[in-house]
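Dear Dr. K.,

Following up on our conversation at the group meeting, I've run the structure prediction for Phosphoribosyl-AMP cyclohydrolase from Candidatus Amunia macphersoniae. I'm pasting the input sequence below exactly as I used it, so you can double-check it against your construct before we proceed with anything downstream. Let me know if the numbering doesn't match what you have in your notebook.
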Amino acid sequence: MSARPRFGDDGLVPAIVQDAASGRVLMLAHMNEESWQRTLETRQAWFWSRSRGELWEKGATSGNRMTVLEVRLDCDSDTVLLRVDPSGPACHTGETSCFYSVVETQA
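The predicted structure tokens came back this morning:
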């Protein structure tokens, strides 16, 4: 039997998306059972939009799709890691990664 995530009480599991070539973290999204299955079947990144309450394929509108090369689970199976080959920027702002804002820390 294939490994599968432990979905939370809300039916979701966090999914970290990483560029397989560079190792850069691109985004964090959430998956439900249907988006998990579609991702495995299509090798394209599918997620559950908490704000819109609907299933979405990353890049379906923008063209910036993410081909899934590898899927991993963390040690507790409560977080998914998608290692992808992105066809464009991950962030809706046009940035390569959604994690482009640097927060200054105090020394």
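Two things stood out to me. The chain has a mean pLDDT of 96. Residues 17 and 82 are 5 Å apart (CA to CA).

Best regards,
J.T.
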